[in-house]
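Onboarding guide, step 5: your first structure request.
Type a short instruction followed by the sequence, for example:

Predict the 3D structure of this protein.
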Amino acid sequence: MDKSEVCQMALHELGEHEYVTGTPGYDACELYFRQTFLCLLKRHDWSFARKVAKLNQVPAGWLLPEDCLHVVELRGLMHWRKYGRVIVPENCSPDEPVTVVYTGAEPVMQGIVPDDMPDFAQVLVLHLAAAICGCVSGDEHKRQELLSKAEVLLREARLRDARQDASNDQHPLESLLNNSITA
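The system replies with structure tokens like these:
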């Protein structure tokens, strides 16, 4: 699902039917889309936005990638602090390369939600609709209703994503069944 589809669906949630350049709905979507998407990405370790990268060493420590929104895991350092985009070790020096698992901003830059993430897409639509509600309709009750609905769906989407990410879609006895047993 791309940006225009998300924006059009958000406007439909508010009773607007045109995502056309120059309209208040279009302008509001252009203003709030990126920030809404970024905020949702930072609220969970979404499997579709997860990336892994080896960090480059700089004088103060190790530099995080430019598109890093949230550090999920840091490999190679036991104790560290984050200062802006720099990871600074505390009382240790790594024996191996420092690698980061992180939530990347690439989906936001592309303006695309993967087709296999419809739950996330629906949450994004509702959060965007709530964000633009003041610009489009000014209905505070509708905005609160959208946010409440979005938060319920967000909890469900996080759970599904975590469950899917942690699943092992292999038969539990696959390794035994593929080995021949000889006496």
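Each response can be followed by summary notes, for example: The chain has two domains: 3-46+117-163, 47-104.
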